[in-house]
Structures are given as structure tokens and as C-alpha cells.
Write a structure and sequence with these properties.
Length: about 625
């Protein structure tokens, strides 16, 4: 295909948006839609290659795969290798172990599945993962694997005209599936191919159904396409479900720009955009680790501008010294794959990642006291199997350690380790626990909105009330986050919190629920808010480890900040008029002293991330529960 300056410039428009969004989402709130633009471009180019080969009866699936490997793998493998070397010197063993897993999944083009299972794309946790951005490369590669097989298979039994119609219908179906999946299963829809394939097929339609336009109309189509893309970048944000129905706007915008075919456009054809377009893949690869590094090492916001500059410089270097290297592509048979060098890059870097993962980030090379703390930072072994993210019938909730179930724990994800630690405490007494927790579910009893969370919440409350065997209930939520929103590191000490009508309503739901449990059960135990950390405990431990400081006590934040952050709920519980069988428990009593709240206290790690208590920390919390 003749080089398309307009498509190259469109790459620049996509990568600029992505980079700006990642460095500061206020600069371009919908910049993540640049990935969707990239998908359209990729679909257009792949369809043109495959259809041209099918028409000429010269298409080779293996040669297609090798060409894609030559294009994508060398720069990606080099980035992963650099991160492995960097991680050896600067990452904690725990973070290095995670990096090893992500390196292996990235060069194996399975990272989208890994990140889907770990966290949502916009979650704070995800933005500490050095190779998070490779999820999109994995989606593309999976499309590259399946798409030519589909088209070659269809060409055996259908005419080219019928194949075009089939792809058109498949694209429409894919878009509808994307809309449904985004609202039903938002995290899988973001990361997985089934909700993204239609975007690449739209690019294919741009090749299969080209517009025949006059020069004047081409300019109008280009302007419309640009407007759709820019409006998406500005008015869409991470608060929207994505991709969903809104993804049609940047996707359609890219489709129209490709259809306009304006190689002399001042927008896409200028020298700056042409240069950035050529370097776009490598810029994309290198910018995200720089974003993570700024947060990981708690660098000031001034480093954002240095990060932007380095993204371009490293992208330029990667393009000139790696991407432009030509690897052998005249490979047509499986036996010839032994001559494909990128395969060896994948195997070598993947092996490094596997070794790092298997050795737990070479943790045996670290001090014994650090190894002990890492052991402490374990979540409940029942977290994955018992903690739910979608509706589950309450009678299917987990029971711990015995059939004599007289206790129930109830709340969000911050209840999971408390349930396990309490169950271990009760086991010698022959009492068991039933564990009810739903991730991120607000304490909204009698809020009968039709969401999986609301339905589960009310069904679980009804189940606990009706079960005569359950005599004691432990109630816990991350109250401040649920009521006020945000994470601990987003709240400076001077910020004041506003009591809104929604907050007052949710607080009234909490009181109704506590009083209901108190009327029906022997005891109700309610935890005040658990202190939150400004950053992940492993980072705090790593900071101390790198400085050679003692690990016995590691301050998370000061007690005054904790009291300010949680002032609303602390005052509410302090002034509440609950019955005598409601016991209010203060995590501050075991996690804090008059000056500081600790991440590690007296040699015990109290958390497994930045806000969830570890099993060791939960054990200290349940010591506040006095058994009758």
C-alpha cells in the first residue's frame, strides 16, 4: 500500500491524547479514547493486507504473523528487558515479582487477561503497574491471530462481496455486544477482545467500503472526523462506562478521517504530526513506565513535563534503533519459524519474567525482617473464593470453620480479612461465621435500585435477619470512601469535607441497618473507619528498605490526618444513640498512637495494600471484639 500521510498523522493524534491523559487526566479527560483510534487504524491496515493477498491468491497466514511479530515484538521486548534490569536495582521484591508476571504476560500477549483479573483500568492500583498499557497490544495481537483465519476461511466458501457484507453485519453485532457487555461486565469489556473487535472491524470497513469523494467533500469529512475525535477527548472521561455506546464517536471520527484520504492535510500532514506518527508506537511503549515512575517514587508534579519530553525522546530512539531494524519476513511454513528472531526475543524475556515470578522477586536476597513483613502482608486465603463482585444469592455465602454458625460479617471488601481473622479466633470455641461482602457496595439498606449491589445488599440483610442461628453481626465498610468518594492519597490534610444530602441519606441507611440488627440479634459490632495509607504498604516498606532504615515501625500517616479524613463518621458514631448491644470498635486504638497511624507496628504489617487490613492486621482488629 502507498504510504498514507493522513493515517500517520492520525497516529499522532491518537498517541498525543493517550500520553496527555496518562500524565495528567485533567489535560485531556477522554484521552484514553486514543487507543480506540489506534484500533481503527490497525483494522484498516490489516484488512488491506489480508484482502489484497486473498484477491491475488498470495496471502500467507504464517507470513502475516511473522510480519506482525517483526513490527511489534522487538521494541516491546526491549522495553520489558530494560524494566527487568531497572527493577533489579530499584523495586522491592514484591513489586519485582509482580513486574515479572506482567513481563511474561506482555510478551506473551495475554496481559489484558491478567489486568482484567487484577483491577479496573482506572483504579489507583492499576496505575502502579509498569506494563499496564500493554493490554491494548494483547488485544490487537489476539485480533491478528483470529482475523486472518476468519477471512481465509470465509474466502473458501463465500465471494468477496459476501465476505464484505458478513463483516459489516459482524461489526454491527460487535458494537451491540460491546454496549451490552460494558454495562453488564465493565472490567472484562474494557480489557477483552469481544468488546473491542468491532473497533478494528470498523477500520476494515473503511478499506472495504471506500468513499468516492470530491476534494471539497473530503475536507468536510476530515473536519467532521477530527471534530468527533477531539470532542471525545474533551467531553468523555473515565467517569463514563467505556467502551460502551460512546466509543462510536472516536471510532467514527477515525473512520471518517481515513475515508477522507487527505494526504495534503494541514492537520495530519504537518511535519510535527508526521514525526510523532512515525514514533507513535515507541512513544506509547515508553510513556507509561515514566508515568508509573513519577508516582512510584513520589516525584513532584514538575516531573510530569520531564516525563512528556522523555516519552518523545525515548520514542524517537526506540524507533530509529529498534523499530527500523529489518528482520527476516520471507517465512511461509511452520518449519521456517526457527528463522524468526522475534520469537527468541519473546522466549528470552518471557523466561526472565518467569524466573522473577517463581523466585518471588528474588526475595531471599532481602533481609529476614523484610521477608517476615511480606509474609504478613497477605490477604485472606478466602478472598478470591468468598468475596464477590457481582450478584450472588446470600445462601451461597462462605461459611468458615464449623457448622455451628452463630456469627455473620457484613460489608464491603474491607470486611474480608476481618471475617477470616474472627473465624480463626472463634474456631476453638466451636463457633462458625458466615461471610457477606460485595466489592465497593455502599451501605444502602432499603435502597431498592435495580443494581446487583443493591439487590445483594438487601437480600443479604434479609437472610441474616431471618437466620435464627446467627446471633452476632460484625458490620464494617470503608465508610469515608463510600460516602465522600476518592482515595486517601487524593485528600490533602487541609481539605474540608462537605456533608451532602446523599451523605446524610446514606448515613441514615447505616443507622437503620444497625438498629435493625440490634433488634434481632444479641450483639452488633460496628467498626469505625480503618485508617488508610497514602501509598501501598509495599512501597512504604520499600522506601525504608532502600534507605537501610528499621522496619519495626513504619508510619503510614499522622493521627490528626486520620481524624480529619474521617471526621464525619467519627462524630456520627460518637454521637449515635444505639442500644447497649451495639458495640462501637475503634481501629485507631490498635493501629495508631496519639501522633501516628502505622503501616507496620511493632514488626507486624497491618495492611496488604494501601487501605485493606492484612490478616495480621485484622487479627489485631478482632482483638477489640470481646467474646461473651
Amino acid at each position: 500500500m502507498q504510504f498514507r500521510k493522513d493515517i500517520n498523522g492520525l497516529r499522532a493524534i491518537a498517541v498525543i491524547a493517550i500520553v496527555l491523559f496518562h500524565f495528567n487526566d485533567n489535560w485531556m479527560p477522554g484521552g484514553f479514547a486514543g487507543v480506540d483510534v489506534f484500533f481503527v487504524i490497525s483494522g484498516f491496515l490489516m484488512t488491506s493486507i489480508i484482502f489484497t493477498g486473498i484477491k491475488k491468491e498470495t496471502f500467507s497466514t504464517i507470513k502475516f504473523y511473522v510480519s506482525r511479530a517483526n513490527r511489534i515484538i522487538p521494541a516491546l521486548a526491549f522495553l520489558c528487558f530494560v524494566l527487568v534490569i531497572f527493577g533489579w536495582f530499584y523495586l522491592t521484591p514484591t513489586d519485582y515479582q509482580t513486574l515479572g508476571k506482567h513481563v511474561g504476560s506482555s510478551v506473551g500477549f495475554l496481559s489484558n487477561f491478567i489486568y482484567w483479573r487484577e483491577a479496573g483500568y482506572f483504579d489507583v492500583d492499576s496505575h502502579r503497574k509498569w506494563l499496564l498499557h500493554t493490554w491494548s497490544l494483547s488485544v490487537e495481537w489476539q485480533f491478528y491471530i483470529l482475523y486472518p483465519l476468519l477471512l481465509v476461511g470465509l474466502s473458501k466458501c463465500l465471494s468477496l462481496k459476501s465476505i464484505k457484507v458478513t463483516l459489516l453485519l459482524a461489526t454491527v453485532f460487535g458494537y451491540l455486544l460491546c454496549i451490552y457487555a460494558t454495562y453488564r461486565w465493565p472490567d472484562p469489556a474494557y480489557y477483552l477482545l469481544h468488546a473491542r473487535a468491532w473497533e478494528m472491524m470498523v477500520g476494515g470497513l473503511a478499506y472495504l467500503y471506500p468513499f468516492n469523494l470530491s476534494d471539497g467533500r473530503k475536507k468536510g469529512i476530515e473536519w467532521l472526523g477530527l471534530a468527533l475525535i477531539i470532542l471525545s477527548y474533551v467531553f468523555i472521561s473515565k467517569a463514563n462506562f467505556w467502551p460502551g455506546y460512546l466509543a462510536i464517536f472516536p471510532v467514527l471520527g477515525a473512520f471518517l478521517l481515513i475515508q477522507a484520504q487527505r494526504n495534503d492535510s494541514v492537520f495530519t500532514g504537518n511535519r510535527i504530526f508526521q514525526a510523532l506518527g512515525k514514533w507513535s508506537y515507541s512513544i506509547y511503549l515508553w510513556h507509561w513506565p515514566l508515568v508509573v515512575a513519577i508516582g512510584y517514587f513520589s516525584l513532584s508534579r514538575h516531573y510530569l513535563f520531564l516525563g512528556l519530553l522523555l516519552s518523545v525522546v525515548l520514542g524517537w530512539a526506540s524507533y530509529h534503533f529498534i523499530e527500523r531494524r529489518r528482520f527476516r519476513s520471507d517465512i511461509y511454513r511452520p518449519a521456517q519459524l526457527i528463522k524468526c528472531k522475534p520469537i527468541y526475543f519473546t522466549l528470552g524475556v518471557g523466561l526472565l519474567g518467569s524466573v522473577i515470578l517463581a523466585t518471588q522477586g528474588f526475595i531471599k536476597q532481602s533481609p529476614i525482617e523484610y521477608q517476615k513483613l511480606v509474609t504478613d502482608t497477605r490477604p485472606s486465603p478466602q478472598r478470591d473464593s468468598c468475596h464477590i463482585h457481582s450478584y450472588q444469592s446470600p445462601d451461597e455465602a462462605c461459611e468458615y470453620f464449623g457448622k455451628n454458625v452463630t456469627w455473620a460479617t457484613f460489608g464491603d471488601s474491607h470486611t474480608v480479612e476481618i471475617a477470616y481473622a474472627l473465624a480463626r479466633k472463634l474456631k476453638p470455641y466451636g463457633q462458625g461465621i458466615k461471610h457477606f461482602s460485595f466489592s465497593g457496595c455502599k451501605p444502602a439498606y432499603q435502597d431498592r435500585e435495580s443494581t446487583p449491589c443493591a439487590k445483594w445488599y438487601n437480600d443479604a440483610v434479609d437472610y441474616i435477619i431471618e437466620d435464627e442461628g446467627i446471633r452476632n453481626v460484625v458490620f464494617n465498610h470503608r465508610f469515608t470512601q463510600q460516602l465522600m468518594g476518592g482515595n486517601a492519597d487524593h485528600y490533602p490534610a487541609h481539605q474540608q469535607y462537605t456533608e451532602t444530602d446523599e451523605v446524610r441519606e446514606l448515613t441514615s441507611h447505616i443507622d437503620k441497618l444497625i438498629l435493625l440488627f440490634a433488634a434481632k440479634k444479641d450483639n452488633v459490632y460496628v467498626f469505625y473507619p480503618v485508617p488508610e495509607l497514602p501509598k501501598d504498604i509495599h512501597q512504604l516498606m520499600g522506601d525504608k528498605l532502600r534507605r537501610g532504615a528499621s522496619l519495626d515501625n513504619i508510619v503510614g500517616t499522622d493521627t490528626q490526618w486520620y481524624e480529619h479524613r474521617n471526621a464525619y463518621m467519627i462524630q456520627h458514631f460518637d454521637n449515635a444513640n444505639y442500644p447497649a448491644n451495639v458495640h462501637l470498635l475503634k481501629p485507631q486504638d490498635v493501629f495508631c498512637d496519639p501522633v501516628n497511624c502505622y503501616a507496620v507496628k511493632e514488626g507486624t504489617a497491618l495492611y496488604f495494600d494501601e487501605d485493606h487490613p492484612s490478616v495480621a492486621g485484622a487479627k489485631k482488629l478482632v482483638e477489640l471484639i470481646e467474646l461473651n
